[in-house]
Write a structure and sequence with these properties.
Largest sheet: 8 strands, mixed
Number of strands: 23
CATH class of one domain: Alpha Beta
InterPro entries: FAD-dep_OxRdtase, FAD/NAD-bd_sf, Rieske_2Fe-2S, Rieske_2Fe-2S_sf, Rieske_Fe-S_prot_C
CATH topology of one domain: FAD/NAD(P)-binding domain
Helix content: 25-40%
Pfam family, one: Rieske
Number of helices: 10
Keywords: 2Fe-2S, Disulfide bond, Iron, Iron-sulfur, Metal-binding
Radius of gyration: 21 Å
Strand content: 25-35%
Protein name: FAD-dependent oxidoreductase
Shape: globular
Organism: Lacrimispora xylanolytica
Length: 444
């Protein structure tokens, strides 16, 4: 399945790596986070090489709904309680500055990417209490939040949290322009990282610093990201023509929808579940029924799925990969908010790699320990991983090459999925999503 961004944006092909190279920094992954990190490092005068297993922007950056926002669901009230007011404030400030930085870059370089300023809304059709709590916390933390009772949605709501000064765009049009002066080697698969050597199927790149921006880190030890992250899947449908709703909307109720317009169309989002645990009913059929009810004259153009890395405390991991690998860096665990998080990561990592500190280092540090915020999800994630690994030892199991968990067939997405860490494989066995690096043997 291709997204609207993939079908509407043609990024010129880049050559594959040929032979061995040496550079100051090598970045693994040419999505939004990897490309932006390379962009800012080059502005600092650092020589950078980016390695991409497929095409620029072909990973999760190509499947996003591309909301540039610091409104990350009902997060500020939660963070204030779980990690403290100051960490919650810094989290919000970093993301709001990221939103503003996109606008500055797009204006400075005259990037044509369907960029639009849009307010962001969290709505509920059931209650307003949790929305009012979120508004209070967000405002106290310095976020541009307010509570409203009226929206442009085609149904009544109990209320909504509005964030002003947010935006949306076409992410691949943006990546196309911002990557034009960056050295990217496409169709160059990283097989292994040893010390300062990045070993690919086309040669070895030796670098002083290494950045893992490949969505889910494929190196298990050190770092142990497999023990502190899982992946979630959600679904998107493109409809049109649909009248502009004058904002970007996300429902906070169970089985709620998200809405955002693009070029006369509507991107309808739905569903969120752990990868490898398919829903009981086809989410696309559910979305069609809703679309027929709310937008009965709209035509369905295409649909696709998105997959996101979820951390245990809802904060991305940005910084040093491991205390045992001080020259390795990572940007992962963006949840559903990859656009603002990619910018936060790029700004932070470019500073850290050039020997500077930021006020946000401790908040996003992969070495942090937020026991209170992580305990429940840690137990749930551990249980799912144990179940998947145990099932993998049974005769006849189709196992994931990452760590041996038993794969599940997703009948709606028509692919094999790992319930432990979210790797995906086409029906032929070809790998379509990491952290696994190898394809499966042919599966009938």
């Amino acid at each position: 399945m291709k997204s609207i961004w993939m079908d509407s944006t043609l990024i010129p092909r880049r050559n594959s790596l040929t032979g061995n190279k040496r550079t100051e920094v090598v970045i693994i992954g040419a999505g939004m986070a990897g490309i932006l990190t390379a962009f800012y490092l080059q502005r600092h005068g650092v020589h950078v090489v980016v390695l991409e297993a497929n095409r620029i922007g072909s990973g999760q950056s190509g499947f996003t709904t591309a909301k540039i926002t610091s409104q990350h669901n009902l997060i500020y009230h939660k963070l204030e309680k779980s990690v403290g007011k100051e960490s919650a404030r810094l989290y919000g400030k970093a993301n709001q500055l990221a939103v503003e930085e996109y606008g500055k870059l797009i204006k400075r370089y005259s990037i044509q990417c369907h960029y639009e300023k849009k307010d962001a809304y969290l709505y509920s059709v059931q209650e307003s209490k949790k929305l009012l709590e979120e508004v209070q916390s967000a405002k106290e933390l310095g976020m541009p939040a307010s509570f409203v009772r009226e929206t442009k949605l085609p149904f009544p709501v109990c209320g909504a949290v509005r964030f002003t000064g947010q935006a949306q765009f076409n992410p691949l049009e943006f990546i196309k322009e911002i990557s034009s002066g960056i050295t990217v080697y496409e169709r160059t698969k990283v097989l292994k990282v040893q010390g300062h050597d990045v070993i690919t199927d086309r040669g070895v790149v030796k670098a002083e610093k290494i950045v893992f921006a490949s969505h889910y880190p494929f190196v298990n030890v050190p770092g142990f990201y497999f023990a502190k992250m899982y992946q979630e899947k959600s679904y998107v449908m493109e409809l049109g023509p649909v009248e502009d709703l004058e904002g970007m909307y996300l429902g906070v109720d169970k089985k709620a929808y998200s809405f955002r317009n693009y070029d006369g169309k509507l991107l309808l989002g739905f569903g969120s579940h752990r990868t490898g645990k398919a829903p009981d009913t086809d989410p696309f059929i559910t979305m069609r029924h809703t679309a027929e009810h709310l937008f009965h004259q709209a035509e369905e153009f295409r649909s696709w799925t998105a997959q996101d890395c979820m951390t245990l405390d809802s904060i991305p991991y940005i910084g040093t990969f491991s205390a045992f690998r001080p020259d390795w860096y990572v940007a992962t665990g963006f949840g559903k908010w990859g656009m603002s998080s990619s910018m936060v990561a790029a700004k932070m990592l470019s500073m850290q790699i050039t020997g500077k500190r930021t006020p946000y280092d401790a908040v996003f540090s992969p070495q942090r320990h937020h026991i209170k915020a992580s305990a429940l999800r840690f137990a749930e994630h551990g249980l799912e991983s144990v179940k998947g690994l145990s099932a993998g030892v049974k005769p006849g199991a189709v196992n994931c090459p990452h760590m041996g968990c038993r794969l599940i067939w997703n009948q709606y997405d028509k692919r094999w999925e790992c319930p432990c860490h979210g790797s995906g494989f086409e029906i032929s066995g070809k790998i379509s999503a990491g952290p696994a690096q190898q394809s499966l043997p042919f599966i009938d």
